[in-house]
Design a protein that fits this description.
Elements: H1 3-10, H2 17-21, H3 28-36, H4 42-75, H5 79-127, H6 131-136, H7 139-181, H8 183-228, H9 231-239, H10 243-296, H11 303-344, E1 366-376, E2 379-389, E3 394-398, H12 405-411, E4 420-425, E5 428-429, H13 435-441, E6 442-445, H14 456-461, H15 469-478, H16 482-487, H17 505-519, E7 523-527, H18 535-551, E8 553-557, H19 561-566, E9 569-574, E10 577-582, H20 584-590, H21 593-610
Parallel strand pairs: 3-8, 3-9, 6-7, 7-8
Antiparallel strand pairs: 1-2, 1-4, 4-5, 9-10
Helix pairs in contact: 4-5, 4-7, 4-11, 5-7, 7-8, 7-11, 8-10, 8-11, 10-11, 15-17, 17-18
This protein binds adenosine-5'-triphosphate.
Adenosine-5'-triphosphate (ATP) binds next to helix 6, strand 1 and helix 12.
């Protein structure tokens, strides 16, 4: 018996409280769905079944041969028979192991293919989810489902299914052979098995609890490290003088882990001691009773028979133990499948209409017709928004923070869909347009510029993979970032750092303007950074953005007067409603919300810039 194997497996033999509470409902429909992922591979599965049966049965055969080796070869003093039996036994072992190798290959192959199918399907599905899915779900959860849950499925196929089959076959075959040899010894063997299995399970549980505690401790340590050794975390620690506090927290958690690890390792030792003692009692009992039967009752029993019984007995432990664990593995696997299917069942909210149209050309014009929108049913964000933006014109949207400016923008490329009213892009309702076309035609420079960890070039090429060097440089020049690029030793191949951390806010925004210029969208949306940039960066962005606005259809979410003045029309938003609209001079004269904003916000920004 391989003790190491059970040592590794036993940790999975128990359910946590949380798992007990969240037991999945195992229904016929669920099973059918699980197996539907296996059906494409039925031929390979059939092969595996045969292989498992063959290797389990062949695996038992050498134990039976041992009896004949002793009786016919050794006791019978027949050398040639002895050699033949030994060779046969070796050949059978080799055969069974070779089949095992093939079975393992097939197993892994199927598991990899099933999870490959699942992963791709899930990734494609998640990409179709609307933005609200990503804002309302924890990113960690999404990633766990994509990675650990799906890897769990792989384990189910490679281990759980195979384990049930091979252990049941081995167990039944061993019992049948034992009873055919001698029912008294076989019954004794069966009675001995719990002696081994019960201590194994209880020692396993102790060790499992310790492992879990130490796991929780390590998670805590990882949490501390993640929080405090990140760029912004360290900043917080330093600024609040929390070094000692964080050190103590880290130190304590580390100390707990040490204690737990020592206890766990000792529990492991005790476990092996108990198991090896008990696993020896069984064979000794069989020798004793077998010996008594043979000597005193002169039953038709040979030394070889007793040896076969002992050998088979040791083959019972493993399967019994594994099968006891299977129920737990089964529940856990089904829970995993249920979680994965939950994601698959999320409806795709925003997708191409069946009759979606793809116009040949987009002029970038937009109109909102009595649009109402809410992220959650409880709270409406936009009320009756109506406006027209003609091709080659520009609109500035201004308003206090939280008034719904970015929300209006989100409705145009259908990051969200409005609940009532219509958003038109060109002459078409956006809901009737081909999504790919729509999103290609709209370019957004957002406040939160997202850059990938890579070079400037890679970030730019994301918008247009086949852009030439000249196009890249032209875009950088237009976006007023080329002087920065030139200053870099590696030029366009300079790294931007994780999420662009190596760049300043202004540089990041100018880089994302260059990126959008490469995309060359019919409609350009510019969400101006609210955060104060220094006046030089601000002027540079301004210089970049103004000529761009003049030459194409654009919407500007503006915080600075210069940007507002560049637009043809200004919409003033307050609490999700357009409260005023017109040109700067009209609005200032009107003396309403705009004037208020002008006095408090724009003028100050202007004065700051002039300083
Ligand atoms: P700012 O100038 O600060 O960027 P804004 O005018 O662009 O503000 P929006 O971002 O459109 O404002 O937000 C309008 C309202 O909608 C806010 O009250 C905000 O809390 C809410 N909101 C924004 N995004 C979501 C979301 N994904 N889910 C739920 N509510 C949201």
């Amino acid at each position: 018996m391989s003790q190491g194997m059970h040592g590794g497996r036993m940790g999975r033999g128990f359910l946590t409280e949380e798992e007990k509470n969240n037991r999945p409902k195992i229904t016929g429909a669920l099973l059918k769905r699980v197996f539907s992922y296996l059906t494409p591979y039925w031929k390979q599965l059939l092969l595996i079944l045969t292989a498992i049966a063959a290797s389990s049965l062949l695996g038992l055969y050498p134990s039976i041969l041992t009896g004949r080796i002793i009786d016919e070869g050794l006791i019978g003093r027949n050398l040639s028979k002895l050699i033949r039996l030994i060779l046969l036994s070796l050949a059978v072992t080799l055969g069974s192991n070779l089949i095992g190798v093939g079975q393992n290959y097939l197993n892994t192959w199927i598991a990899q293919h099933v999870t490959f199918d699942m992963r791709n399907k899930m990734y494609a599905h998640l990409q179709k989810m609307s933005q609200s899915f990503f804002t309302s779900n924890n990113q960690g959860d999404i990633i766990t489902r994509m990675t650990s849950d799906i890897s769990g499925v792989e384990r189910v196929i490679t281990s759980t299914f195979t384990s049930i089959l091979s252990n049941s076959i081995t167990l039944i075959a061993a019992l049948v052979i034992m009873y055919r040899q001698n029912w008294v010894l076989a019954t004794l063997g069966v009675l001995v098995v719990p002696l081994f299995v019960i201590p194994t399970r209880s020692a396993g549980k102790t060790r499992w609890n310790l492992t879990r505690e130490s796991q929780e401790c390590s998670d805590e340590i990882n949490g501390i490290l993640n929080e405090t050794l990140s760029v912004s975390g360290q900043l917080l620690v330093k600024l609040f003088g929390k070094e000692k506090y964080e050190y103590d927290r880290y130190h304590d958690a580390n100390q707990r882990v040490i204690k737990l690890n020592v206890r766990e390792s000792m529990a492991g030792r005790w476990f092996f001691m108990v198991i090896s003692t008990f696993s020896n009692i069984g064979p000794m009992l069989l020798y004793l009773v077998g010996g008594i039967l043979m000597m005193n009752y002169n039953q038709n029993i040979t030394v070889g028979d007793i040896t076969v019984m002992v050998a088979l007995l040791s083959r019972l432990y493993g399967p019994v133990n594994s099968l006891l664990n299977i129920q737990v593995e089964w529940i856990r696997s089904m829970a995993m499948f249920t979680r994965i299917f939950e994601y698959f069942d999320l409806p795709v909210e925003i997708e191409n209409a069946p009759d979606a149209v793809t116009p040949k050309h987009a002029d970038g014009s937009v109109s909102f017709d009595h649009v109402n929108f809410s992220y959650d049913p409880e709270r409406q964000i936009l009320f009756d928004i109506t406006f027209d933006l003609k091709a080659k014109h520009s609109i500035a949207i201004v308003g206090p923070s939280g008034s719904g400016k970015s929300t209006i923008i989100n409705l145009i490329p259908r990051l969200y869909d409005c609940q009532s009213g219509t958003v038109y892009f060109g002459d078409h309702d956006v809901k009737k347009l081909n999504l790919e076309f729509l999103r290609k035609s709209v370019g957004i420079v957002s406040q939160e510029t997202y850059l990938f960890n890579g070079t400037i070039r890679e970030n730019l090429l994301y918008a247009k993979p086949d852009a030439t060097e000249a196009e890249l440089i032209a875009a950088c020049k237009k976006a007023n970032i080329y002087d920065f690029v030139e200053k870099q030793e590696e030029g366009l191949d300079a790294m931007v750092g994780n999420r662009g951390l190596k760049l300043s806010g202004g540089e990041k925004q100018r880089l994302s303007i260059a990126r959008v210029l490469l995309k060359d969208p019919a409609l350009l949306i510019f969400d101006e950074a609210t955060s104060a940039l220094d006046s030089i960066s601000e002027a540079k962005i301004q210089e970049a953005i103004e000529p761009i606005i003049q030459s194409r259809t654009s919407i500007l979410i503006a915080h600075r007067l210069s940007t507002i003045l560049a637009a043809d029309e200004i919409l003033v938003l307050k609490n999700g409603r357009i409260v005023e609209r017109g040109t700067h001079s009209d609005l200032v004269k009107a003396g309403g919300t705009y004037t208020e904003l002008y006095e408090t916000q724009f003028k100050k920004a202007l004065e700051n810039a002039e300083k």
